[in-house]
Specification:
The complex is a heterodimer of chains A (234) and B (449). With 234 residues, chain A is an alpha+beta fold. Chain A has helices at residues 7-14, 19-28, 38-63, 68-74, 106-116, 121-126, 129-148, 154-157, 175-190, 199-205, 209-228; strands spanning 78-82, 86-87, 90-97, 101-105, 159-165, 168-173. Helices cover 73% and strands 1% of the residues of chain B. The chains are: A alpha+beta (234), B mainly alpha (449).
Chain lengths: 234, 449
């Protein structure tokens, strides 16, 4: 693998990455990553993906449309657009604040669209401005759905035991499962052939190509570990 | 002739407001305090030429200049700079060994995905860490770990920034290096105050730490209840999956304080031994003698760079402190009658006026406070056990929450939080802490007056 990889080449590789690999990549960013056993992770990833798909179908049957903006409107979500995006090395794409506020950061989308316009026609058509917004909006709609079904949805009911003391047990939800579920939800709604996690590289690249390449390499490393069955290193 | 002194006093007060404006604009404090030192010295000399200044009796023009621009920084250097450098060296070791980062990760694993609990645990560990660490370098090193964690838990950035900076402020109440800084200012104001040491201050320092941490957490939690935690989609290149420092090394964070308080060891020795303990337990003392020497030299150099801006500021601040002694007679002329002479009234005055510690104001020892200290010291024979904690309150709480503090200013750039959103929480917090702790000072030390 060469030291630096072309942007377009990275995206083409990432379009082929499977959901389990993306899930492991998501877990590598999880605060509680070290508290979860490797075999548990794969099970959780599968369940979170299934959960995302299930709730996508549920919402489509409830609203009668799979169009993201129509769903947002039907669910009475307030969508705002802001410029604020990068805090330190962290690029914020969007945010859902209960009960119904979704904030989408336009700057990374505009930067990505501009950058991708220099690439092949296939990529330009695959990642149009409106498509990226729909992917992000779909992701945030899932967090609204999580709030609505918080007592029963898998991504909120799956918990791990952090510690126990004199009979008191402290459990925690795993935030990453919500992210994995949100990606599966959006993928199902939009009938995407790739995981929306790909936007982590796509939208980050215009801010810091070297760090975006690091994310890309992290994803591929997870793919290799999964194939080799050594996911305890994730 | 009294009217001349009053006019000079008014000019000095106006120049102080100029300094506040200068600080708010974010201009360089080293230059600002040097200019203020020169200006106050100049007008005090002019005033002395018109009507004798009691602080300049038997002193020539050159004596005054020597005292302000030479003796002041020299004495300050002897008293604290070595502590600052070794404190920074120790801070750099805590960063390089991964001890500080490990402690932070461990408390996150304790709290889990519960923003309030995890934020509180992060604040507690941050406060403990900053009882020993100092300087903008270590603050940034910890901030780039703590702030993204808080943000990823959905805590709004103004609250995350405030809680983090507030917990540093709480830790500073127990910080040995900061104690030495302020004690040096007290020793300049009155030589008898030089005997006051960290052990005598320690009980109040711990109370100050606990009270201010509780207030910061209460304010942050109230703010959090007004703004719901969010779910963010964000990307970062940092996985944070570094190797944990061994459990046995974690105690290194508080070893300097334990050494000074429990074993009465000198602080520099405490920093060196604690640093070596941290390196030893984290298995960093390997690779041969030459390699270890190179590593230690690098850590000392990196620590020195971390505090270099602070050292520059402290040296010009020491000039300002000396100039303030010559300005004190004019302030006494203006405010002397208004300075309380009973413990209760002084505590009430400090409690009510705590906000004047913000923006390097007149109750802030690392601001214009050294001039007021000189005036207060001149009004009555205050025991240092009573007076030091009062000034520590109006210096530590406002200053380390203040937008003129270097790392707070850095935090605005890092988090893109507006100063307005931040100050809505920081100024009331500083004031509440001031009121509570001034009450504590009266209860604990009021009888000494």
């Amino acid at each position: 693998m060469p030291d630096t990889i072309r942007f377009g080449e990275m995206l083409h590789h990432l379009l082929e990455v499977d959901d389990d690999t993306w899930g492991l990549y998501a877990f590598s960013r999880e605060l509680l990553n070290k508290r979860i056993q490797p075999d548990q992770k794969l099970t959780m990833i599968a369940k979170a993906n299934a959960c995302g798909k299930e709730y996508a179908q549920k919402i489509v049957s409830e609203i009668g449309s799979s169009d993201i903006k129509t769903i947002a409107k039907a669910l009475k979500l307030k969508v705002e657009y802001h410029d604020l995006s990068m805090i330190g090395k962290r690029v914020l794409f969007a945010r859902f604040t209960p009960p119904s506020l979704i904030e989408i950061m336009e700057e990374p989308i505009l930067r990505a669209v501009k950058r991708i316009s220099e690439e092949s026609l296939f990529l330009v058509e695959e990642f149009q401005h409106n498509d990226i917004i729909d992917i992000i909006l779909g992701h945030e709609i899932f967090h609204f759905v999580e709030e609505r079904y918080t007592q029963q949805i898998y991504t909120r009911t799956e918990k791990i035991l952090l510690w126990k003391f004199l009979g008191y047990k402290n459990y925690s939800v795993i935030r990453t499962l919500g992210e994995i579920g949100a990606m599966a939800f959006t993928k199902e709604l939009m009938r995407l052939s790739y995981s929306p996690f790909l936007l982590d590289v796509l939208l980050y690249y215009s801010y810091d190509p070297a760090s975006a390449e690091k994310i890309y390499k992290d994803v591929l490393a997870n793919q290799v570990r999964k194939v080799q069955g050594t996911i305890e290193d994730c | 002739m009294g009217s001349v002194n009053i006019i000079i006093g008014i000019i000095m007060v106006l120049s102080f407001f100029g300094l506040v404006w200068y600080c708010i604009k974010g201009y360089n404090l080293i230059v600002g305090f040097f200019v203020m030192s020169a200006f106050w010295t100049a007008i005090a000399l002019i005033g002395n030429a018109i009507t004798p200044n009691s602080a300049m009796v038997d002193k020539t023009f050159i004596d005054v200049l020597t005292n302000v621009f030479q003796t002041g920084p020299e004495n300050y250097g002897k008293a604290i700079l070595v502590n600052v450098f070794f404190g920074a060296f120790f801070g750099r070791i805590l960063i390089d060994t991964g001890i500080a980062a490990t402690l932070i990760r461990k408390v996150v694993e304790l709290g889990g995905d519960k923003p309030r609990i995890t934020m509180s645990l992060l604040c507690i560990v941050t406060a403990v860490i900053f009882t020993s660490m100092t300087g903008i370098g270590p603050v940034i090193s910890i901030a780039v770990i703590v702030l993204p964690i808080m943000l990823s838990l959905g805590i709004p950035s103004p609250i995350a920034l405030f809680a983090f900076m507030g917990s540093i402020m709480a830790g500073i109440f127990g910080n040995v290096v900061n104690f030495k800084q302020y004690q040096a200012i007290f020793a300049t104001a009155n030589e008898e105050y030089a005997t006051y040491d960290y052990n005598a201050y320690f009980t109040f320092g711990v109370i100050g730490l606990v009270v201010s941490l509780v207030i910061v957490l209460v304010v942050a939690n109230i703010a959090l209840s007004k703004k719901k935690t969010s779910y963010a989609w964000a990307a970062t290149a940092d996985t944070g999956s570094t190797v944990d420092a061994p459990v046995i090394s974690w105690i290194a964070v508080i070893l300097p304080v334990i050494g000074v308080v429990g074993l009465k060891v000198p602080i520099i020795f405490g920093f060196i031994v604690s640093g070596l303990y941290a390196l030893l337990t984290c298995r960093k003392l390997k690779g041969g003698f030459a390699e270890i020497c190179r590593m230690l030299a690098k850590q000392f150099a990196d620590g020195a760079i971390d505090v270099a801006p602070m050292v520059g500021f402290l040296l010009t601040l020491s000039m300002f402190n000396s100039a303030a002694n010559y300005a004190a007679p004019y302030f006494k002329e203006l405010f002397g009658g208004a300075i309380p002479t009973s413990a209760l009234l002084l505590c009430i005055a400090f409690a009510v006026l705590t906000p004047l510690g913000f923006f390097r104001g007149p109750l802030n020892l690392v601001g214009c406070g050294s001039a007021i200290l000189a005036v207060v010291v001149a009004t009555a024979a205050w025991p240092v056990q009573f007076l030091y904690p009062l000034f520590a309150i109006t210096t530590v709480a406002p200053q380390h929450l203040d937008i003129t503090q270097s790392w707070v200013a850095w935090g605005f750039g890092y988090t893109k939080v507006s100063t307005r959103d931040y100050m809505k929480m920081s100024i009331p917090t500083g004031w509440i802490i001031g009121i509570i702790l001034c009450t504590v000072v009266f209860v604990m030390y009021g009888h000494l007056v």
